[in-house]
Design goal:
mainly alpha
Length: 492
């Protein structure tokens, strides 16, 4: 992917693409007037202070339309929010859960005797905290484990009115059925089987955990998500059993098989969740035609780290300037990125000069010196907005590191815009772009590397797979042979 670096006599610092509709002269006037953010723009609009900015009619119309759209969108969100049923005060995030006697697990029917315990936990909440501390060193793993433990604990105590440490075979069996039906049954049928209404559990996506309208789920769970939920809860109970907190694991008697529901297909193979050469060329073409700004420079680094280096999303977010260094390899000094992956395992990946230039180009947009001069702890991916608490000395002006949701939204928006560009001529390719996710970049790296005849053990090392069996899931030789053979068959 080629990165163009034109002369940049004027770098506009803004969190929005809105200002792209204005001429450079208008941008200068905006900056001089102190309008360098959406907040400042909205204030001028509310105060009716457009005079003196010298806007053209087209610019004025564009700005006012955009601001009115924002106002309508906010009003719509507020209306939806007001129509939501009142939240269940007992269904709250894990950090706010307070369980009464009888549901806190102090007298759980499955609790082991004090002399048999190696876990210093007096109730179910503290037992879960111990499990998270012992088993989830990685912040992303901890988030997944906490989510599933939180959901199951709330289900036990609120839906079943039973302590987690009193869970038996019946509850272990029912939880999967409950997960299968959540969000899929009409409320009339749901209420015949379950105590609490579905709206107690289902809420809007990306609602902050501090928001009263937060819910544990935002949609019916897919087959993969149900499988992950059961696997995680099973691991929690394995831990509680091995540490002597409970006597036995009720999930040991439950089949590990999670059935497909009607309309659900088998999960796609890794190779299916990647972009073909033609699809990636479409993505690349769309990217190149974007206007060069900080958002594009950051997107280039995201695409490079995912598709060019095979990094996981968590690795992209954790990457720091100090990860990039020079090492002697095969008698030659080369630049490498030393990735700290799952289990804190380090793998060393060589960097091409163009990849280093992409990162330096992005650092330039952030008013930072290039690699080697920038502060070692500088995140390679940062939020576009600046916060006063993140400002350091001149030349060290760090921004907050990009969040996981920010990374997903950035890529999702880019691929959606790319899909719109091609959907008229290639609707199926557009649909695939819309179905993709951050991890597809990593899948594409693997399939591209294997197609170029890179040895599978080398790909395994580059991706940080613990087993070559995982890497081999990107190979589909039988399907390739069938596809080649079928090309020679008559249509009918």
């Amino acid at each position: 992917m080629t990165i163009f670096k034109p002369d940049l006599p004027l770098k506009i610092k803004t969190t929005e693409k809105l200002f792209n509709v204005m001429t450079p002269e208008s941008l200068v006037r905006f900056l001089k007037a102190g309008i360098d953010s959406v907040k400042g723009l909205v204030k001028r609009y509310q105060d009716d202070q457009w005079a003196g900015l010298g806007l053209t009619k087209a610019e004025t119309l564009e700005l006012e339309t955009w601001l009115n759209d924002r106002r309508l969108l906010k009003a719509k969100k507020d209306l939806i929010r007001d129509r939501l049923p009142a939240p269940n005060p007992h269904i709250v995030p894990f950090e706010r859960i307070m369980l009464p006697l009888g549901l806190d697990g102090r007298e759980g029917s499955n609790r082991a005797a004090n002399h048999a315990r190696s876990l210093e936990a007096t109730d179910d909440l503290s037992a879960i905290r111990s499990w998270l501390l012992a088993r989830a060193n990685n912040v992303n793993t901890q988030g997944v484990y906490r989510k599933e433990a939180e959901r199951f604990l709330l289900w036990c105590t609120q839906e079943r009115q039973i302590a987690l440490s009193s869970v038996g075979l019946e509850e272990a069996s029912l939880y999967l059925r409950w997960l299968e039906q959540l969000g899929r049954l009409p409320e009339s049928l749901w209420s015949q089987q379950w105590s609490l209404p579905q709206h107690d559990w289902l809420g809007a996506k990306n609602t902050p955990r501090t928001d009263p309208q937060w819910r544990p789920f935002n949609a019916p769970l897919s087959h993969t998500s149900r499988k992950m939920a059961l696997m995680t809860v099973r691991q929690l109970f394995n831990f509680l059993t091995k540490t002597g907190y409970i006597i036995h694991n009720p999930f040991d008697q439950i089949t590990r098989k999670v059935p497909f529901l009607e309309g659900e297909g088998a999960p796609k193979e890794y190779a299916d969740r990647s972009f073909s050469d033609d699809q990636w060329a479409q993505v690349s073409d769309y990217f190149i035609n974007l206007e060069d700004d900080e958002a594009k420079a950051r997107l280039a680094v995201i695409l490079m780290m995912g598709k060019g280096l095979g990094l996981r999303a968590s690795e992209m977010l954790n990457a720091r300037a100090e990860w990039i260094t020079e090492r002697m390899v095969d008698g030659e000094t080369i630049k490498v990125i030393e990735v700290i992956g799952k289990g804190d395992k380090v793998r060393r990946l060589p960097l091409q000069e163009e990849q280093v230039m992409m990162i330096n180009h992005y650092l330039h947009w952030r008013d930072l010196p290039e690699l080697g001069l920038v502060a070692p702890e500088t995140p390679l991916l940062a939020s576009l907005g600046r916060g006063a608490e993140t400002k350091l000395a001149q030349g060290q002006g760090m921004k907050r590191g990009l969040s996981r949701s920010g990374l997903y939204r950035t890529l999702e928006m880019f691929l959606e815009n790319c899909a719109r560009e091609i959907e008229t001529s290639e609707p199926m390719a557009a649909a695939k772009l819309r179905a993709s996710s951050t991890h597809w970049l990593r899948h594409t790296f693997a399939t591209t590397a294997l197609k170029s005849n890179m040895p599978i053990n080398v790909v395994q090392n580059a991706m940080g797979h613990a087993s070559v069996a995982t890497t081999s899931r990107y190979l589909t030789p039988e399907e390739a042979e069938v596809a080649r053979a079928m090309k020679n068959m008559k249509v009918f």
